[in-house]
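Before a colleague's protein record goes any further, I have to sign it off. What it holds is a sequence and that sequence's fold in token form. My question to you is simply how this chain folds and whether the tokens agree. Thanks in advance; the entry in question is below:
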Amino acid sequence: MHYGLILEGDYRYGHSEEEAFDESFAMADAAENGGLDGVWLAERHFAAPRGPLDAMGAGIPSVCSVPLIMSSAIAARTERIRVGVAVNVLPLNHPVRMAEEVATIDQISHGRVDFGVGRSGFARAYEGYDIPYGESRERFQECLEIILAAWNNERFSYSGKYYTFNDICVIPKPYQKPHPPIRVAATTKETFPQVGALGLPIFVGLRGLDRPDLVLLLDEYRKAWKDAGHAGNGDVYIRIPVFVGKSQQQAYDEAEESTMQSYRRLAQNFSLSAASAGTVASEERVARGERLSAVTYDDLIRDRLAYGSPDDVVRLLKEITEEMGLSGIVAETNVGGLVPREKVAESINLFCKEVVPALR
């Protein structure tokens, strides 16, 4: 069982970029020293901080626009934890360059890299890179094929809709053979059976989905996995909001404002990005946006969060692990980005010292 932290690169209103980087590295140090298994960096673009009157902009403010560079810095300052990106947004990156960079970090870290991949639901990032979001699925598939060809072959050629390469040799090759573990983000209904049929591990979350919905989608993932003849029962890591306080009420109170703002913003983002998705995906995004726009804090506590005292969080994570058949839990410790840094640090400390040891 893998236990880790999400690093969003929180860029707080009224604070500096330097402080945002310092906080991310302090969280990585806490994971290393606290006995966790890994850290996972977000890839976030154009995520500037906003003032109190502009709280509904797209996305959590973040300095983590180039997570592979940050991953390299974390790999160099740690000795034990694994370092991943949840997720590398493949359509926004050149596949050969990414194959080189990920392999380089894998060499630097002596094989501590996990390769999380996805398309991202933030259409605004695609606009900033002048790439139509409607191309994201085809670009994702093409990029992943190229990266794997670069790692698995001494030399390779490729001819696709967006990229063409002729007899090139990508150096270095990864430290891990044949390549770092791949984990695909699954957020839409059609993605779960597609990734299951490929026999690939997945990364899921409780942002756009609640627990009952996610359980049903994981059933589809595992059915497709078995129907395709893959051994085992799939491999699922969950990204879940975790906030640990000395008491249940303290945890609820300290995280409420930030959490509610985050889910209201997420509801807005689903609605805004619906027009950029395909017909089925668009309908799904609209439905999710409508549900989240009416969600209450009690609803979130019941179906999407693991908040409370250490004992509360242990109980919740045990329940979720059993009902979803998880192989990893990655804690998102500052949903919304508004929880004060010292409170986030206290929560992480309790998670490392009291929650995870009780789960192992």
